[in-house]
Every structure is written in structure tokens, then in C-alpha cells.
Amino acid sequence: MATHSDPRLLDTAQLEAVLAEFARVRDWDRHHTPRNLLLALTGEVGELVEIFQWKPDAQAEGIMNTDEAEHVRQEVADVFLYLMRLVMVLGIDLDDAVRKKIALNAIKYPPKTEC
Amino acid sequence: MATHSDPRLLDTAQLEAVLAEFARVRDWDRHHTPRNLLLALTGEVGELVEIFQWKPDAQAEGIMNTDEAEHVRQEVADVFLYLMRLVMVLGIDLDDAVRKKIALNAIKYPPKTEC
Amino acid sequence: MATHSDPRLLDTAQLEAVLAEFARVRDWDRHHTPRNLLLALTGEVGELVEIFQWKPDAQAEGIMNTDEAEHVRQEVADVFLYLMRLVMVLGIDLDDAVRKKIALNAIKYPPKTEC
Amino acid sequence: MATHSDPRLLDTAQLEAVLAEFARVRDWDRHHTPRNLLLALTGEVGELVEIFQWKPDAQAEGIMNTDEAEHVRQEVADVFLYLMRLVMVLGIDLDDAVRKKIALNAIKYPPKTEC
């Protein structure tokens, strides 16, 4: 079980530096308010979901072996990038938040006992 | 500008190992199909968005200084954790996907020229 | 095929009158901005989706025969009510919008020819 | 206050008949499972939200006076049409669900007393 005192699970420092500079040179910081980013995140989740909306489970599971793989990768990246920008503008330590949440989940959902 | 040959921006290896084990000991892998995870991701985005739905921008920007900060951190973590599980079951290299998408965005949205 | 000159498909006049009064006596109009309502809509879609996230298709199809039926009805109503409030604050004629969209869809997706 | 014994607030009978026939002649019923429709609904909400994601509140409020009005109307219609298809495949009486939910909301959120 992961606990808060465990070593870091996630390192996003380089990404955050790149995204901060990316926004700065485009004068995007004033657009990247929490509510704008939440709407943008919702929009990107919508685009990702649309790829899968009519696909049976077996087809969805095999999608990375098709010519839609690159599209999926791009939409997953878009969702993640807007989430990271939200994390950044809110000043959240994502690694810390993730470790605490995993620790809470571990209590809420104990592992199945194996007999 | 970030390009595909740049060094990694993101390291999720430890997190992926922890999440894989977390799911394994709970027998969750059979539930973590791409479409189930997309619905779960949508649900968590909904929970995150609800925190902000009636808040004016100034209040949204200051939310991490209020007693709702922990709630925000938990919902951000939930969104990210389901996105990571989707990344894992689809076999996506998130760092690679992110670097390629940033490179595409850099072409699509050139920086403002500074005179 | 439905066209713009067809009779109305949808009558929401009574509902709109009730919702307008409901908001008025609660002083909610100032909160019901388009962006607030879009975030609220996203939140309610999240709540609706969560009911179905871990259910196989057969279980999802039979959900109205279970004790989750009332929950589904309430979340569907919540999604619809926020969409109606958005329609109202934007001054959209939903029946007109729906008929035009059906006409566009009919052109975009011609019926399968039956031999 | 609306109660369950009140007259109908909403009439969708004609729309449901048109949508049923629209799906039938395109052989779409087998694709319109609850989970597919929920993913499609999420996708359309994403498309609607994207129109508003970078707009300040004042601009969002005036959008129907711009050349984006028709786009908004189409996306609102798309969200509503997938919600109606979900209502249809689940066999929900939307008017009944809406009246019950409004009655619940009236109890949960009593009107402000006016002095």
C-alpha cells in the first residue's frame, strides 16, 4: 500500500517547466483560469470518448492496433495536458495528491483476501 | 519547443507499478476495460467540475486557500488516476504521447512575436 | 424526414414557465449564467454516467428493472433540467433547433436502402 | 410548486416517434445501447462546452447575437437528442421524471422568504 511517506510516484517537474514556458510565450496565462481549464478539460474528455462511443468492448480493447491509435494518443495527451495546467494554476502537488488518494483508496477498498 | 527527441518530460513508472499491483490484488483488471475507464473518467471530471460550478472566477482562483482545497486535490487525483489506468490498459507511453502533442501544438500555435 | 416546416415535435412551454418561476423565487437567475450552467450540466452528466460505469451492457440495458431505476430517472431529469435552463438563458427555441438538426442529420446520414 | 399530480410540463411524443423511425430506417437501434448513448452524450456535451471554454462570462452571455449562434443551437440539439434516445431506450417517462425531480428540488431548496 502506498502511503504519504513513500517515495515519489510521479515526476512532472520537467513537463511543468515546459508547459509554463509554452503558455508564457503565447500569452496564454490570462486565459488559463481554473474554470476555463475545466471547460477545456471537459471538451477534451468529450473528444477522447467520441472515439470509443460506438465500439464494442473487444474493438475498444484492440484500438491501439488500428489506424486510430495515433488519434487516441493525441486525445489522451490533450486531456492530460489540460489537467496538468489546472494542477499548475491551482498550485497542486500532483504526486502528493495522488499518493494521498491512493492511501485513502487502499483503506476504502481493502484487497480481497486470498484463501 | 519540445520535440520527440527531447529528454523525457514525465516519469510515471513508479505510479504505474503501484496502480498495477493495486488493481491486481483487488481483482479489478477485468473491470478496467477502456470503455469502463472512460465512463469512470467522465464521472470524476463531473465531480471535479461540480466544485467550481457556481463559483465566480475570483473565488475559483482562490479555492486552494479555502477548506475546499483538500476536496479539489482528491478529485484532481481521481481524474488523473483513471486517466493513468486508461493509459495503462491501452499500452500508451504517456511521456511520448505528451511530447509529440506539445510538438504538434507548437506548430499549430506559434508563439507571439515579441517586438 | 423531418424538415423545418413540419409541425412542432416538442412542447416545453409549461416546463419553461415552471423553471423560470422556480429560479425567480430562489433568486437563482444571477447564478444561471451560460458557463455556470455548462459546468452544472457536465457535473450532472458525470453523476448519470457513474451509475453505469462498471456495468456490462446487459446489466445497463436492464437497469430500469432494478432498484437503481429511480436514481437513473433523477439523474436523467437533472441533466435535462440544466440543459433546459441553458436553453432558456440563451433564448434558444429548442423545438426549432431540434427539427433543424434532425433535418441536417437526415442529409448527413441517409437511410439504408432496403432491397 | 410543481407536484406529481400537476398536468404535464413537457410533451415529447412526436419527437420520440420521429427519432424511433429515424433510428429504425438506419438500423441504428443495435448501436443505441445505454452505454453507447452515454458516451455519445458525453462527447456532445464536450462539443458544446468547447464553444464556451475561452469566453469571458459577458461574451458567453451574448453568444446568440454572434455568428456562433447556429453552432450553439446545433450542439444543444445534439446533446438533447442523445439524451432523448437514452430516455427512449431506458423506457423513461421524461415528463414524469422531470416533475418528480422538480418536486424534490422544491423541498430541498425552499424559496427565499420575501419580507
TrEMBL record, chains A, B, C, D:
Q: Which GO terms describe its biological process?
A: nucleoside triphosphate catabolic process
Which Gene3D superfamilies does the record associate with it?
Answer: MazG-like
> Which GO-annotated molecular functions does the record name?
nucleoside triphosphate diphosphatase activity
InterPro entries membership = DCTPP
Q: State the UniProt keywords alphabetically.
A: Hydrolase
What Pfam family is a match for this entry? MazG-like
Q: Is Cell wall biogenesis/degradation included in the keywords of this UniProt record? A: no
Report which superkingdom the organism of origin falls in: Bacteria
Family annotation (PANTHER family): DCTP PYROPHOSPHATASE 1, PTHR14552
Q: What name does UniProt use for this protein?
A: Nucleotide pyrophosphohydrolase
